[in-house]
Amino acid sequence: MTVTSAGGAGTEVxxxxxxxxxxxxxxxxxxxxxxxxxxxxxxxxxxxPRFCDHPLLDPVGACRQCLVEVPDAGNGxxxxxxxxxxxxxxxxxxxxxxxxxxxxxxxxxxxIMEFLLVNHPLDCPVCDKGGExxxxxxxxxNGRGESRFLETKRTFAKPxxxxxxxxxxxxxxVLCARCTRFSDQIAGDPFIAMIDRGALQQVGVYEHQPFxxxxxxxxxxxxxxxxxxxAGYRFRxxxxxxxxxxxxxxxxxxxxxxxxxxxxxxxxxxxxxxxPEVNEEWISDKDRFAFTYARQDDRITHxxxxxxxxxxxxxTSWPAAFAAAATALTRAAGQDGGGVGVLTGGRLTREDSYxxxxxxxxxxxxxxxxxxxxRHSAEEAQFLxxxxxxxxxxxxxxxxxxxxxxxxxxxxxxEEAATIFLRLRKAVRKNGQRVxxxxxxxxxxLAKLSATVLPTAPxxxxxxxxxxxxxxxxxxxxxxxxxxxxxxxTTPGAYTAALAxxxxxxxxxxxVPRRAGDRGAVDAGCLPGLLPAGRTVSDASARADLAAAWxxxxxxxxxxxxxxxxxxxxxxxxxxxxxxAGVDPVDLPDPAGARAALAKVPFLVSMEIRASEVTxxxxxxxxxxxxxxxSGTFVDWEGRPRVFExxxxxxxxxxxxxxxxxxxxxxxxxxxxxxxxTVEQARAEFAEVWFWDGARAxxxxxxxxxxxxxxxxEFVLDTWKLLIDDGRMLDGEPYLLGTARxxxxxxxxxxxxxxxxxxxxxxxxxxxxxxxxxxxxxxxxPDSVAWAPEHSAGVRLxxxxxxxxxxxxxxxxxxxxxxxxxxxxxxxxx
Amino acid sequence: MPSLKEQLWDPVAGFGxxxxxxxxxxxxxxYPYDKKPTAPRFHGRHQLNxxxxxxxxxVGCELCAWACPADAIYVEGAxxxxxxxxxxxxxxxxxxxxxYLRCILCGLCIEACPTRALTMTNEYELADDNRADLxxxxxxxxxxxxxxxxxxxxxxxxxxxxxDYYRGTTPTAGAGEGATS
Amino acid sequence: MIVDPLTPVLSETWDAERSWTLETYTDAGGxxxxxxxxxxxxxxxxxxxxxxxxxxxxxxxxxTGMKWGFIPQDDEGAGAxxxxxxxxxxxxxxGTCKDIPLMMAAPHTLVExxxxxxxxxxxxxxxxxxxxxxxxxxRRLQRAVQEAYLAGHLGADIHGSGYSLDVIVHAGAGAYIxxxxxxxxxxxxxxxxxxxxxPPFPAVAGLYASPTVINNVESIASVPMILERGxxxxxxxxxxxxKGFTLYSLSGHVERxxxxxxxxxxxxxxxxxxxxxxxxxxxxxxxxxxxxxTPILTDEHLDVPLDYEGISAAGSMLGTKxxxxxxxxxxxxxxxxxxxxxxxxxxxxxxxxxxxxxxxMVQVLRRLEAGQGTAEDIDLLLDMSANMAGxxxxxxxxxxxxxxxxxxxxxxxxxxxGMTTPAWELFPYAASALHxxxxxxxASR
Lengths: 830, 181, 445
Hints:
- The complex is a heterotrimer of chains A (830), B (181) and C (445).
- By secondary structure, chain A is an alpha/beta fold.
- Helix content of chain A is 27%, strand content 18%.
- By secondary structure, chain C is of the alpha/beta class.
- Chain C has 20 helices and nine strands.
- Chain C has a five-stranded mixed sheet, covered by helices on one side.
- Chain C starts with 21 loop residues before the first helix and ends with a helix.
- The A-B interface holds A 123-126, 130-131, 158-159, 234-238, 240-241 and B 59-63, 65-66, 76-79, 89-91, 114-115.
């Protein structure tokens, strides 16, 4: 297939001159050439039954259910036999008769349906697909009323696990190969394939390798029968039990559209919704299955206030909790209170972030607010203020698909932004897009993108990006896109270099954060130097503009502290109070220091869904609603607002917006509280302050510094979080966790040789702080670099080593090397 | 001045009806002391039937709930395991509730049942003094264990898989259907 | 008067001492066609094959020269990719047995044909995909290719012509479907053998998505003689539209089964005369013109010319010219069942009609064979067959329905009998065995 400018999604409707006119069921219709007859028929409202056909998969013509009669193939001659409309492209003057107008086509379809049911067990009553099954529906609409098959059906043992999450019932399978084609074509994980032949053909897995794919759930959704079902949803509900609410996935910054199906106040499952602009019809398994975290036993059900007498958290009423928080925060924000800091984390909606941003400025009178619960830098803040905040829709998925060249830096799409990964893979496969990655090694996701890795040790990204434009091979130009991930913040000068590269080559630049709320937080001004919509704290006119909009005399002009500085100040006893929303100390650059700071700060308010390390230390705990229990907006990496509505009602928790409004209203010195109480009001007010055409922040200009030079036996650590890691938003879904990739230390073959270990043997990463022991794995990584997952089962790299990407560690063979091949989930930590 | 007839006859005329009726068949029903049998196909309280070995026939498919025009039935399915088996096959009804405050005893549910697990008895005494007790749970609806039946969970006794049960390929299969309370 | 109509060309040297060796072949004039071809321009070789009127001998009868002409020879697009010749030697159809004897007895005929054909289409690699089960053929072919390399007929710069060719003999893994050309390509590439979606056609995107010619063994083996003796010599034989000679394989209830090489258009009556007639004491009941996938014919069709048009007019297909002869001791129901069982076993499973239809048909036919058929079974079989034919991805289902349809068409009464009487009672199976003692023979009706 060639790259054409026409036909891409997301562009305005173009006048096309490549239309082909044909007649379907006596209706004349013009469609673009190369259109399949089955899709052309949809346009005139005729649904031709089908199983193997899927608009996003390559045509295969396997099930033969979509047979139509072609009295004129466009050359005046009829086609002698019924044709499969899913593989038949339109031709000028073609005449097609579907089952709606042709007895031949109708009979052919009924014949195929009868064949399909020959070996189908008809166990609909126990099948999870029953009630929403294309086979059931089409057997009713396009099948014979009665079966003539009285003989013996083929039988298999059922069901079998092809992964921890996916169950396969081979008896029900109609062998349409949608699942195998999806895995091969879309996800790039061809771990399931058709095996055997004839009626005994079946979907099979490699004997020793389960169906390990981050996208396996999509095969369940596109299975047209009940052959693939999920362990998580097995026998849970029927379609008529379920109330479906469209929503947006909260696990990453991709904004994937989902459908949440719930029954009696419990989410039963989540499906991918169809959004051609964003995730098409695919979502990652994390987006699909990770929803049980919101109903764990450690959910906070009541506001809690620490009893000064016993030191224990005591349940209390909302007004009492608001009052307690308001009193203490007022004192801390006052003249001698030491000030307040606000840490907001990555799970917030834009409305929530906006509420925190305004709460900090108006209620607490401070710019001490930062959403970054990870490594960060002033350069990053400057980059976000100058190029991301308030910029609206930038590079889109459609742009990504059309781009000739994509350069990734500080981003592993499959692990950190799964929807981007799928779109890139589509572009690579269909358009011949070339992907380059500034990364330490070829991860599995990069391999599936056929990416060219520009081997870079952590810390060397700035230099690598600076060197790029001059490199003839990459040939980044205005048709290219440079995608930078949040991990670049760890390398001084990297954002500066990325901006310079984009300016030099004309390539477009996109920032891809990891968490769903990050882009919204930037837009809402949850940064110490940034106000909503890209206004800067240092700009007096911006402050005045916003103060007028907010109806306050003035806004604090002192630049605030960032996350590190706030925690540092708190640890040093210089901060009067901290307000902490979804932040887990384990994610912070210095978890131990953060814990000390949280313990030390005189007053700690925690807005949390479930009990956490922060709530343990908090003085007031306010239960806030998870995404499923509130409405809101996530802004995806494109800058596209993804509005979603509340799915479940009747919970005890309140949205962060309402909680902050409650505290503000309890503060007696404020006349009008926060100015809004509901998510909708916050959204409306945000829309009012969204327009800002004043000055923006300057681009960062930070010189690159050379990364640490590893001494003998030392390695530069590289790390990121895997998609399915040990995060708290994956709790309660053992089947999903069963599909997690095992935690390993990736080292070069030479290093393994030097350490005298083979793949699968345990190796130990060690720093002054501590050590982590994991099985070794070979990778095409520089000899001086060691990679390990940041936060997988049994691994807490930051806590255990006190180190992150770019820091130095030592690596040694662990005593008692295990047998090769036993590289499992046996990570431990010292 | 009333006539003689009005004075003498009319006051006792009414007793004529009484006397006449004394020699007719009594229509009064002595319920609840004397319970009358219903018509054989009377739609009474539901029953969840068992296989002759005591396993439940219900597979938790929810078709009854789907068919119910009054939304009176609530079912949750669950997985049989080899260690804990309630019905032949993969699936059984873990939760089964019929809300008799809603039920109109129309019988669409028993027509929908694919395994003849749900049938209706002639039991019509469905009254209570509180709402909660009128939501019948699975253990209220299950047919009692007859001789030879064994309280689930237990392994399949009448065949190797559920097909043996459904096809009746074992000598005694099917005999348990319609066991009444 | 019968003039001996046989034209032994391919089979000329089959009875020679050690006929498979290069020496025997060369002594009989082998590799002269190659010499001549190398002096010609490749396009002239294609023209010669076109002029000869050679049609594919694998069953479909597509003109070979025309197929070669479809290969893009320009320097851009598909033409710029390497070209491949693939020889389909995956002969597995019930009844078909011409390529395997040819490769056994005279493998060099094929090797020479491969070299000339590859030269014509400008391929520098050719593959011979041999059915995996015939190990002895495989060894003989490999030896022949080795001999050809040693003699300089293969390898770099063949005989100083500047043309280089490598031939790879590849063994299949035992799937009938790999005789379907696109399934063969998938199998050759190391995938599961399942037919591919067309378009793109192999001539544009075949093996490794490159232009590929796929020809039957006999077609390719016929090429050297066309070059050596000229297209006119070839086209002088045969009939108007079916030119040349071919191998007719007679098997079954015939006195002298074997390969009969004759011009196209000969009749079965003539061939039976040459083969000594039907088994002594019996008469012809039905026969297949080209393997089990072609509808059966009966003794009414003895005088139908065995060429592409003649057989087609009689309602069947010439196919591979595998003439299976069945005499009156044979049960049509049983024969059909055995064929359909074969198709059920060999269905690749990709598409529904073939996969499920053959599964179901076998069960119905078994019932009929056992005399336990129902009144609806014949209509059911015909309806199933109608739902399979032309509805499937490749022609395998067509073969299944062809044998069922034609069997019911000509011998419906035997299927009717299958509702009451087992086939083994009507046609004692021992009687149709070739070693059947004479006394059992009379038991049939």
